[in-house]
Amino acid sequence: MIARAQSICLKVAVVTAVAQALAAFALKESYATTVIGDSASLIFTCVMVILCGLNSHSSTGPARMFWMLNAAAFIFLFSSYSYWSFSEVLLKKAASNPLIGDGFFFLVPALMLAALAFRPHSESAASDLRFRRLDFAFLLSWWLCLYFYFAVPWLIVVNNFPSYNRANYFLVLAEQSSVVLVLLVLWRRTAGPWRRFYGHACLGNMVFALANLIQGLALAAGKYYPGGIYDVPLGLGGLWIVYALALGSNLQPSSEPASAHSDRQGLWTARLGMVAIVSLPVLAIYGYLEDTAPAVVIAFRLRLILGAMFFLGALGFLRLFILERELQRLVNLTESSYESLKTVQERIALSQKLAALGRLVLGAAHEINNPLTAIFGYSGLLADNPSLTPQERRLAHEIQQQVRLAQSAVSSMREPANSSSADNPAENTSPAPVRILE
Fold it and tell me: Does residue 3 sit in helix, strand or coil?
């Protein structure tokens, strides 16, 4: 169910998409179409940022981090559209440096991939957020390295815009395809509301990626103009993404059974990090052996790869350092738990011995008390016999006095035995003394 605030944002996006489509098909290329097309893009991105902000306020754990990273991604998308709109609407001319707008746009899928790496549907993902933040930095650095390797030198080193534009669009398509693939995997592994959200987000990003590719091809062919029909599929993809974000208003991370998914997640993260580091010297060799690139581009790429290897290597060592400290903490915790377990076991064994000793003392006291009671009774009968001499009667009373002392000693033995056998009341109850009837 979509909340009220999210429903209002969705209605705004629907009205914007309809107005954009009507203007694209009804109007010819003009300043008005440029204003409408750029305004529609800004409205879409504003709605996306607002929806992510609303969802983050109502979420907890990894889900909140997921929405915050998505909000950051759409802020970069808004910055990209704002740069183009400023040049086309206010300055009424093409942007002088497309690298700024394209750079903001390139960061959007990278941040979305980092957000998806947090697995917002699972509560267990919150247990290793430190490593996921490092994974986010690693992933973002690797994508930026690819962007500066393949696209940037064609613009800032040799000023070859066609080569730059082609490389830029293919890199963005690779990023967006990665987002769609990860969403598809999450859609298959989840159920309920999260599955519905991932499904619509996957379809929306797929339409958005294809529309962006079509727009780039039209721009290369000289057929694209802002606010034209090539912006309509992009608006449809944006509307679908807005709908998916509106579905996330009540999504919360849920507990999932401890399966191999989390272990596989960490394993795949380590493998991807290894692939990223190994790919850098491969890129360096490819750039060195490439015959079509100018020498200045090759030199730029080699310097970039050298710096990226040092930086990503430092991130890898930092991850290993944190992992080593975490393992040491777990080892210390295991040792402490083992010592505590040994202490508890020793106390339990001592308690069992004391309980057994208490039962033995109670049994012995019972067996001693019965003859004493009999002796006390018979000595009383003997003391009441009128045929006894005073000396014999005094001895009978002496026997009774010694029996009382013995019974008192037996009673003092039974008190600590009762306290040691308090866990079993049935064992603490001793038989009643035998009464000797005359």
Answer: coil
End-to-end CA distance of the chain: 90
Q: Residue 131 pLDDT more than 80? A: no
CA torsion, ordered 78, 82, 85, 90, to nearest 10 deg: 150
Tokens of 59: 């979420």
Contacts of 150 (CB under 8 A, 6+ apart): 167, 170, 171
CA angle 22, 27, 32 (to 5 degrees): 100
- In degrees, to the nearest 5, what angle opens at C-alpha 118 toward C-alphas 115 and 124? 160
Contact 2, 246 (CB under 8 A): yes
Asked if residues 201 and 183 have their Cβ atoms less than 8 Å apart, the reply is yes
Both tokens assigned to 256? 């999932």
Nearest to 212 by CA among 156, 244, 174, 182: 174
Minimum mean pLDDT range among 11-25, 230-244, 343-357, 412-426: 412-426
145 burial (CB, 10 Å; 0-12 / 13-18 / 19+) is: buried
Write the pLDDT tens digit of every residue in 8-53: 999 999 999 999 999 999 988 889 999 999 999 999 999 999 999 9
- Mean pLDDT, the chain, rounded, equals 82
pLDDT tens for residues 310-334? 888 888 788 778 778 878 888 888 8
Task: Identify the burial level of 366 via C-beta atoms within 10 angstroms of its C-beta, where 0-12 means exposed, 13-18 middle and 19 or more buried.
Answer: middle
320 exposure class (CB count in 10 Å sphere: 0-12, 13-18, 19+): exposed
Task: Choose among 115, 88, 90, 120: nearest CA to 101.
Answer: 88
316: tokens are 């890898």
Give the range among 93-97, 137-141, 427-431 with minimum mean pLDDT. Answer: 427-431
Whole-number Cα distances in Å, 6 to 67, 237, 248: 14, 18, 9
H or E stretch covering 339: helix 295-383
233 touches 211 (CB < 8 A): yes
The DSSP letter of residue 122 is B
Crossing angle of the two packed helices 260-289 and 295-383, in degrees rounded to 10: 160
Q: Which has the closest alpha carbon to 233: 30, 17, 32?
A: 17
